[in-house]
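From the shared-data thread, chain only:
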Amino acid sequence: MRRALTQRRRAAPAHPQPGFTLFELIVVICLVSVLAGILLKRLHTYQEAAQKAAMQQTAAAIKSALQMRVAAYMINGRDREIESLRDENPVDWLQEKPQNYAGQFFADGYARVKPGSWYFDQSKHELIYVPDLDAHFKRGPDGRKWIRYRTRIEYEESRETDGTVRRTLSAANFAPVQPYVWF
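Structure, as tokens:
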């Protein structure tokens, strides 16, 4: 009889083992998968926003460098040389070139530049940025995913009392050639 009692105790434990059922485990795996998917989508959105901010920061640095160069020309009496800034590569005005600067191309370098890079088109005198993460970037009328910048130098003409025409610098700007949409 003792033997029968001992065998029963071994066969059925007194306390059930704690743990997950298969159903609970599947629910937890599904929840973790959904949360990971949401996190990855948000992470991609934040990476794209960071890329856009870095592009805008580089453009702002170039704009500041242009304005400092124009001021230096004016202070040194080299006003006539300001016009030549339109044709120069704006990256040369920076103290350090951006790490993602691919160089200068005489013809269209769009196909040769990897996404996420800047390049200077020598034939059009434009600094071009090709976005890498572009899920929220609207392509331009030409169908390409790029943002083209150009240096603009503008003058106003006024007549003096003696009848001579005087040209005065009215704007020196570094801005996109066409408006772009990157939301």
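The chain has a mean pLDDT of 90.
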